[in-house]
Amino acid sequence: MMIPRHLRTVLCAVALATMIAPVAQAQLTIDINRPNFEPVPIAIVDFQGDPMGGQIAGVIRNNLQNSGLFRSIAPGSFIEPNLGANAQPRFPDWRNIGATGLVVGSATNVGGQIKVDFRLWDVVGSKQLTGLSFTSQPSNWRRLGHIISDAIYKAVTGEEGYFDTRVAYVSETGPLNNRTKRIAIMDQDGANNRYITDGATIALTPRFSPTLQEIVYMAYGDTKGSPPRVYLQNVDSNRKELLGNFPGMSFAPRFSPDGSKVAMSLSQDGRTNLYEMDVRGRGQRRLTSSPAIDTSPSYSNDGTQIVFNSDRGGSQQLYVMGAGGGGERRISFGEGRYATPVWSPRGDYIAFTKITGGSFGIGVMKPDGSGERMLASGFLVEGPTWAPNGRVLMYFTQQPNSGGRAGSVALHSVDITGRFDRVVPTPTDASDPAWSPLIPQ
Amino acid sequence: MRMIKAIAAFAALAIVAACSSEQAPPPANAQVTPGSIADFKQNVGDRVYFDTDMSSIREDGRATLAKQAEWLKKYTNYPILIEGKCDERGTREYNLALGERRANAVRQYLVAQGVPADRVKTISYGKERPEVVGSDEGAWARNRVGITALQ
Questions:
Q1: Contacts by B134-141, CB closer than 8 A, 24 or more apart
Q2: Residues of chain B positioned with their CB less than 8 A from the CB of A205
């Protein structure tokens, strides 16, 4: 797999030897599918040695706190504030300040490379849960913080983490009737924000390729009246290609799980149908033939099915069909209109936007349409996207416009239980989040 | 660039202002050149409105489009772009398709009234370029629109 140059880490990870034998059953576990739990108090000590160690610890604290699963204990209360990766913690001192988990580490500059060791301790069980050593270029310090956060998340929850990821989104500025909408990309925690399109024309609905170096999105043409089209763009070189040579408006693109195909909508003469493009060979196939609106296609995690949004039955509902088209069946039967279905990367849920009366919601259902559950609601919420572990989502909210001014538009993240919802900070108003897969190490 | 955007925003406001009086009879002292774009906007009406999630031409819209067709057959020098737009109470991708359906409904109506099909193009702005900035039924009703733009 090709890895974008700026993500190449020459990353070397090895397990640290366990320092002491387990003496008790581990207490530090979280079931992220259980709806009611208290955030686990965790102490993350500034990594000792190189000053970069404190910054890495800061990245980890922010990630774990933002997950909603952990409460990061203020470092000012630590009794052993200079504890390193290779010293034995005094567990009673950590229990005294209420810590259940303890993260310690060391950062050392070795011949221009940074070597980072860390350990996760179960304070209650006086037991090491994981310990790893990484060597990389110093410029990768933020990524090291994310990779360590993922290791902690996995050790505690048993699920893959999602911190070493990026988010593409639509940056929105200016008055609503002449809004600039451009594609931006940032790290999952908001760092390293940069712009992919220049804002000269409206660009919407970015989606990541599974290989991370490419996105697809929809953009209007440069001349007035030229219809929106789908573009494939390399986010490192910025090389841009038109995807599909369709006569009408093409939009709503989404990659297949292997990245070889893109499904999208084509509108012509008042009808909107689904098509599939080969990304490399440029072959194209028609997937639906209805006089209705068929849009927002999303492949199943195994690539064999596509869920999409159609008003063929009179109102917007969700339908599933084979990935080559055919066999369409409706799966949404609740009250209201359903839109923007997105199949979870682990296959167990389809997330959607639901419009009921005057309210919008984000929900999930099983792929057969059963088990519908709402996670968030508001005046306008829209556009769910899955973290690679399928247990956290992002979406966007719009506040009502008032006094001729646009209501604020912001990204949110929410966990699969709907319990922990928070704003994801962005430099400008932001919509249409697209969560990347984990970055290859 | 910033200057150009500011002017464009001002122009958009001016269109909104025009639209809000578009149902009223033209003022007695209107001084517009017959056959000009201003004449079309002021004396014919450049837009029709739609019901929520609908793309069928309403009764009031039919009268406007009949006048538009008559005018457009008389003054044949303008390329025509029908802009379909939606209110904010739908999802982004669906509204792009709905705007296209609305623009197409206007186009079909004009073509059926004798406007040559090859003169009339369509584009959808979904909910991305509202005519009126607001989050109440009054604003939404003005944003469910098909605009016959002359170029």
A1: B134/A401, B134/A402, B134/A404, B135/A379, B135/A400, B135/A401, B135/A402, B135/A407, B135/B88, B139/A401, B139/B87, B140/B52, B140/B87, B140/B88, B140/B89, B141/B49, B141/B87
A2: 92-93
Residue A251: list chain B partners with CB under 8 A: 93, 96-97
Nearest residue of B to residue A380 by CA position?
Answer: B89
Q: Looking at the partner chain, which of B5, B8, B94 has a beta carbon nearest the beta carbon of A309?
A: B94
Provide the pLDDT confidence category of residue A139 given band limits of 50, 70 and 90. very high
Least confident of A104-113, A204-213, B20-29: B20-29
| Chain A stretch 333-372, residues whose beta carbon is closer than 8 A to a beta carbon of chain B | 339-340, 353, 355, 358
- Residue B8: pLDDT band (50, 70, 90) is very low
Phi then psi for residue B128, to 5 deg, are -85, -20
Domain annotation for chain B: domains and CATH numbers? 2-23+34-150 (3.30.1330.60)
Query: What whole-number distance in Å separates Cα of residue A94 and Cα of residue A100?
Result: 8
The domain tally of chain A equals: 2
Chain B residue numbers with beta carbons less than 8 Å from the beta carbon of A432 are 92
- For residue A404, count other CB atoms closer than 10 A to its CB: 13
Chain A nearest C-alpha distance from B112 (Å):
14
Between CA A86 and CA B118 the distance in angstroms is: 77
Domain that holds residue A144: 5-22+30-157
Neighbours of A374 (CB within 10 A): 14
Q: What is the ipTM of this complex?
A: 0.92
For residue B1, pLDDT over 50 is answered with no
Mean pLDDT of chain A: 92
Q: What CATH number did the domain enclosing A42 receive?
A: 3.40.50.10070
Residue after which a domain boundary falls, among A157, A186, A217:
A157
User: What average pLDDT does range A261-280 have in this prediction?
Assistant: 95
Q: Residues A152, A229: one domain?
A: no
Do residue A270 and residue B131 have CB atoms under 8 angstroms apart?
no
Q: Is A72 on the interface with B (CB under 8 A)?
A: no
CA distance B59 to A41: 65
Mean pLDDT of A184-189: 96
What DSSP state is assigned to residue A215? E
